[in-house]
Amino acid sequence: MTSVALAFSGGLDTTVCVSLLQEEYGYDEVVGVTVDVGQPESEFDEAQETADAHGLDLHVVDAKEEFADLCFESVRANATYQGYPLGTALARPVIANAILEVAENEGCDALAHGCTGKGNDQLRFEAVWRASDLDVIAPVRELELTREWEMEYAEEKGLPVQSGNDGVWSIDTNLWSRSVEGGELEDPAHVPSEDIYEWTDDPANATETELVEITFEDGYPVALDGEDLEPVELVRQLNEQAGTHGVGRTDMMEDRMLGLKVRENYEHPAATTLLTAHEALEQLVLTKDERDFKRSVDNEWAQKGYEGLVDHPLMGALEGFIAETQTRVTGTVTVKFEGGQARAVGRESEYAVYSEDAASFNTSGVGDITQKDATGVAKYHGFQSRLANAATDATDERADSEGDWE
Ligand code: ARG
Known about the structure:
Elements: E1 3-7, H1 12-23, E2 29-36, H2 41-54, E3 57-62, H3 64-76, H4 87-105, E4 110-112, H5 121-129, E5 135-137, H6 139-142, H7 147-157, E6 170-173, E7 178-181, E8 210-217, E9 220-224, E10 227-228, H8 231-243, E11 249-255, E12 261-267, H9 269-285, H10 288-306, H11 313-326, E13 331-338, E14 341-348, H12 356-359, H13 374-380, H14 383-405
Parallel strand pairs: 1-2, 1-4, 2-3, 4-5
Antiparallel strand pairs: 6-7, 7-12, 8-9, 8-13, 9-10, 11-12, 13-14
Helix pairs in contact: 1-7, 3-4, 4-5, 8-9, 10-11
The structure holds arginine.
Arginine binds next to helix 4, strand 6 and strand 7.
């Protein structure tokens, strides 16, 4: 008997895949796997209902904690890709690994996903799966299916398809972000209506402001307003709180891995708040040199994160550097929610690279360093630039005066 483990969400693509894997690919058994990375409860109900109607054996794996931990690694790396905090991207390797584990336990011969041949997710899933000996199948891509064809096929076969938002948009939700794409949103000029948003209230209605204190230890968020919270709970609470202020909307053109530009809309209130606060704390505790260098390290981390390559050896190396810097990223940041924005308005840390005496307008110096000591520095500052400009001026003058002779 042959069997295949399918990444199953209960949506149109994966539902159609269940039948295709049996009929077109000839597998005797399809094992559905839904991985919990913090989607809303209703998605699991939908997946279960669809699975039941199909007679599909459905495994639900809870990977919320593992996913939240990875999101917090991304906070330490200040990670966004072109402005998007990587919710979908980081969830994929976690989901792929969970499915692989089920497949191995169940003795499956193959792994399958319902991704199209146009997006990033096929690459992220397969980067994990192709390290195993199991076959990898992508029916939607291999059979070049369109959404219309899938709708007709589902109707013909009497497959239970959850319509969700009536199939208008393709939505991907997890703890870190909610992504909405497709339909009229594919037109980059189309201005989305308020109904595409679920996590964030219209910032236009956010008249009240609110402060929240976020505490970090070694760069990891650990508490909100002084209350210690586990990562999953901390993100959930902050999504609620910042979401009511309309914080964390992104409407962007995204450069996908295959080179396609795609219009994307995202909501990520907690991610925006935590990334803002974390960066504010780094401003206080890291030296300029560390911050400058870390920017390029962070950028590489985000790039690999976007590609779904969290196990890339480069990631380990980058995280080595990041970990070294984060030993001082301990402290508390006050963030203000105001008019759809999260803004750091206060920060404190025992590791602050800051001397009030040195920086203040009200004192003359610090230790034995006096204001006068800066005179020598001021004399040298711009020395090379003055020399270079003087040499150029002299050369120009010479050329002008030689020209006069002619
Ligand atoms: N483009 C995003 C990414 O590659 C998210 C895609 C989410 N999928 C969706 N059906 N909304 O990370």
